[in-house]
């Protein structure tokens, strides 16, 4: 469903339905990243400016949805790790995939990742909300590394709260021009995703070269 369809569908809901939709939409976004979860929140800010909704109500509804799905994906991280281990045992060809899985998800690598998350995980979870394209992956990694749950919830809640306040406040302040925020978010997301793609590609290339050098 595209952004325009989401907005049109939301317009036809009663007030309680809008709050429920905000909650559900925020939850879907963390499980299915292509879902335009930011759109209903910005639009809710616009509706609050016209007294159709209240800003506190919209904030609470979106926060609850994010927290529920964030916890779900956090606990799903353990299953993801188990699934990767199963795949690693079964993959034989191509050889570079087997080597990459063995290197990235080795016990040594996982211990290093856990140690890194113990030191910096809270900050990374906090800022990940502002890094389009990797929000959900950070939550899954937090689950994989068994990050302290209370610390995770604190950082996750803080990040979501700041981001949603910005979206709601922007929609409220811009009024009829609320869609301008979506254009800014699109540009911002494109830049962030491009940088992340280059970074991840460079990391994978470096890891493969390192593994080949070790074998040689």
**End-to-end Cα distance:** 50 Å
What portion of residues is helical?
A: over 70%
- Count of separate structural domains: 1
- What share of the residues does DSSP label as strand, in percent? under 5%
The SS-based structural class is mainly alpha
Order of helix and strand elements from N to C terminus:
HHHHHHHHH
**What is the radius of gyration?**
20 Å
Mean of pLDDT: 76
Overview of the molecule:
- The chain is mainly alpha-helical.
- It has one domain (3-215).
- Helices cover 83% and strands 0% of the residues.
- Helix 3 (38-49) packs across helix 8 (149-174), helix 4 crosses helix 8 and helix 6 runs parallel beside helix 8.
- The longest helix has 37 residues, at 179-215.
- It is elongated.
- The chain starts with a helix and ends with a helix.
